[in-house]
Amino acid sequence: MIETHHPKLPVTRKCALLGLARASYYHQPQSESDSNLRLMRVIDGNYLAYPFFESRQMARWLRRQSHAVNRKRVQRLMRPMGLETIYREPNLSRKHPSQLLFTYLMRRLAVERPNQVWAMDLTYVPIHGDFIYLCAVLDWHSRAVLAWELSNTLDAGFCVRAVQRAMGRYGTPEIFNTDQGCQFTSAEFTQPLLAAGVKLSMDGKGRCLDNVFVERLWRTVKHDEIYLKSYRSQVEAETNLAAFFRFYNEQRPHSVHDRDGRHFTPMEVYRRDLPVALSA
User: Fewer CB within 10 Å, N or C, the chain?
Assistant: First the structure.
């Protein structure tokens, strides 16, 4: 937002107009060290296997695997990865009044057709010397990935772009489910969906199993694609993930769609059941 070579306004004035500290404008973020990036990869793998590990238990587990870490280091590395322990917490604080939260609508709901429920989440992806984030829009009925995006920041913009792409290609869902992450509670994310008549649903805090189908997708993507390769850049990650999601949608039979000895892919189920949904 700041034009570096503006002919009249100095940087000091520009920062003042934006309410930005001048030190923040000049700050150059430092990337994680190679040792931290390697440790983040290990933490991510352990989290997929044991999502109930909080930072203290994760640190103990890592030390048993010969990693010299303490709890504070584990906490600091889990934070930018977006990893949160699954457990019920006591309600010790009030939610900020400006935070947009919505009731979880999926409990005891029978999901029977495409575009009835879409869900979204994001996850951490390691690349050479750094890490990036992946978000995806999933159709709950078919398990098809309708759109996805990569970003090197955790802003809401790349999530919004993925939703816009999914809606432009596949229509409008009845319900859209997310967790309570700041990307999904922002007006930038919620307002376009509400304006389109979509009902918003949000997981309970600390309950990622409320969005279990996306969690299962991340397990598949990481074990079958990301962990088998070492991406050198975001461009390489995007190329490989595009090929993987085509394979996942169009060629790889999904275990939930095994029926009478026949095996169907997510997109086969999406297309097969969509006319039923449109005529209902």
Answer: N
Q: What percent of the chain has pLDDT over 70?
A: 81
Return the CATH class of domain 117-279. alpha beta
Is the torsion defined by CA of 213, 215, 218, 220 positive or negative? negative
Question: Exposed, middle or buried: residue 109 (CB in 10 Å: 0-12, 13-18, 19+)?
Answer: middle
Encode 175-216 in three state secondary structure: EEEECCCHHHHCHHHHHHHHHCCCEEEECCCCCHHHHHHHHH
State yes or no: pLDDT of 94 exceeds 50: no
Domain boundaries, the chain: 1-30, 34-81, 117-279
Task: State the pLDDT confidence band at 190, using cuts at 50, 70 and 90.
Answer: very high
Residue with tokens 């973020």: 29
Residue 199 confidence class, pLDDT cut points 50, 70, 90: very high
64 vs 79: CA distance, rounded Å? 22
User: In this structure, what are the phi and psi dihedrals at residue 18, rounded to the nearest 5 degrees?
Assistant: -90, -5
Those residues whose C-beta lies under 8 Å from the C-beta of residue 86, and which sit 6 or more positions away, are 51, 52, 206, 207, 208, 209
Query: What kind and span of H or E run contains 18?
Result: helix 11-18
Query: Which tens digits make up the pLDDT trace of 109-164?
Result: 889 999 999 999 999 898 888 889 999 999 999 999 999 999 998 889 999 999 99
